[in-house]
Q: What sequence folds into this?
């Protein structure tokens, strides 16, 4: 779709899409709504509803697709940081993880509920972590999505509210900025703790997004 559409918004039906997506860019005139051409009426209804409410209500928007709506992902918050915006804490010792540290990451995963572990996006190296008494208690992994550096973060439940997520995210973001001018952070819109980490680390909100997979 045209680059200008991200700011202008609009409905974009096309045969190449295999899902329905909604992207609401901060400050844009309207959301972008796209999907298969045969969902055109639902796409227009979604654009009207999302544009009027100012927020992406996953349940209501998916209902407009009727029985074709399958798995719903989001709404998710997308933000970006640059070298100028990145805010790193002082006094917290964070180091890069090596292959020898992967068992420590696995132990942290074992101590985390499955849904939180999956959402965290902490899949492996490169990663930056904070260790306490030999145990990894906070980690940020640097991944790649559509050639964009993106951050995944996880902190042990008993070690939260200590600024550790801020420290490891800043370290991972700094590494990502060595290769690209911006780094992405994304989280479920409902995860206010994660969004607070993003804001504290200097990520600026760009858009909210919602993806609705379609049944066959």
A:
């Amino acid at each position: 779709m045209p680059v200008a559409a991200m700011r202008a918004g609009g409905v974009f039906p096309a045969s190449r899409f295999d899902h329905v997506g909604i992207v609401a860019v901060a400050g844009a005139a309207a959301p972008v709504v796209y999907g298969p051409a045969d969902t055109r009426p639902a796409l227009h209804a979604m654009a009207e509803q999302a544009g009027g409410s100012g927020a992406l209500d996953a349940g209501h928007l998916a209902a407009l697709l009727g029985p074709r709506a399958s798995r719903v992902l989001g709404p998710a918050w997308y933000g970006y940081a640059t070298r100028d915006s990145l805010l790193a804490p002082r006094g917290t010792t964070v180091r890069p993880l090596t292959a020898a540290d992967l068992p420590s990451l696995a132990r942290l995963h074992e101590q985390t509920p499955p849904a939180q572990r999956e959402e965290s996006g902490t899949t492996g190296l490169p990663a930056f972590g904070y260790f306490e008494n030999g145990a990894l208690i906070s980690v940020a992994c640097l991944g790649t999505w559509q050639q964009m550096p993106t951050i995944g973060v996880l902190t042990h439940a008993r070690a939260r509210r200590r600024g550790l997520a801020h420290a490891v995210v800043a370290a991972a973001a700094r590494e990502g900025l060595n290769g690209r001018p911006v780094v992405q952070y994304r989280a479920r819109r409902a995860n206010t703790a994660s969004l607070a980490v993003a804001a504290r680390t200097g990520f600026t909100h760009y858009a909210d997004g919602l993806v609705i997979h379609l049944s066959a």
About this structure: The CA atoms of residues 87 and 201 lie 5 Å apart. The helical segments are 5-8, 40-53, 58-63, 102-110, 114-120, 164-176, 192-201. Residues 83-181 form a domain with the Aminopeptidase fold (CATH 3.40.630.30).
